[in-house]
Amino acid sequence: MKKSWMICSFFSALLIISTIIGVFYIHDHVAGGITQEKSYLLSEELDSQQQQFIQQMKMSRDEAVYDAQKKVVQIETLSGSIGSGFLYNANGDIVTNAHVVANAAEVTVITADSGRFKGAVIGISDTTDVAVVRVEELAGMEPLVVERDQRAKLSDPVLALGSPLGFQNTVTVGEVNGVDRHFVIEPFTYENIDQITASISPGNSGGPLLHADTMRVIGINSAEDPEMNLGFSIPIMDVVDMIQSWVDSPLESLPAFDQYAKQPEESAVPSREELALYVVQYYFDSLQFGDYVTAYSLMGSEFQEETSYEAYRESFRNIPSISMDNPEILVVSDQVEINVTVHMEELIEHMRLNQTYTFTFVIGEENDRLKIIGMTRQSA
């Protein structure tokens, strides 16, 4: 009996030892061979700037440029000067060149959706080509992000943005091919200037220079060398403190500029036909990038009363691609009629079909804005 108990105990112990060894073997050899998928979900520890950068990286370059262009404005003065500027903060403050708004206390600011607003010059330097215009009606709009920590380096890819109305090479692409340039264009002294291969056309002065990788403002486009096809940009880091001082404490009086007493030769106010064509082009750009809010806002009040935004957006749900060409313009009284050929890619019963139509737009004014007050479509 004792012998039998000892044999049972021996086999029980052997079984326990074998089980333990097996467990360790499975853990080391089997479990170790299983590769666990890593989670790539955004950590809550990412700050808002990192999340914004990641979100921007998901956008295509064209979408990023389209989004940035909505924050660029055209500036007009009573003397006829035309330039560009960009939203600096959510208070409606716009950064531009001093030579664009020289001798003007009030200016007209035109946004990408053709809205016209009065702006007040709240800061301007008589030695550095920088100024700030405040437009109270633009408060609450999302501004461009300003790069405050890094200077532009040689070979950095850049985008020079200008007038949103598209008449002066709205976007030019290039790179930084020179830094720390110095020159004088009376009465302004330009120091530590970035030289870029992206040209700056007349009327684009005051627009932002963006780093093409981050889409942040790194400079203010200010001058050009047309013979060499070069542009010159004031590094935003050098003037951001001055800009902020005007934002915090607007100037009570503005300096006078004798050099800009006459109307600039570069002034070229867009014609009514050009403005109308811009509205139509901007309408299709908005649709192409899925910005149905902007596209809907370009429609006249009668259309919006008859068609809700939800119904309007739903009508484009199965149109992944849309573009226009061959515009024909006809002025009818105080309105402009534009015929365009429109190419659509439509999803019909899970099939992609390329369709061509002829659209007729009627562009007119409503509340000081150009609107699409009529639109018809027929097969081409």
Automatic annotation (TrEMBL):
Biological process, per Gene Ontology: proteolysis
GO molecular function: serine-type endopeptidase activity
Pfam families the UniProt entry points to: Trypsin_2
Superkingdom per UniProt: Bacteria
Keywords: Hydrolase, Protease, Serine protease
PANTHER family: PEPTIDASE S12, PROTEASE DO-LIKE 8, CHLOROPLASTIC
Protein name: Serine protease
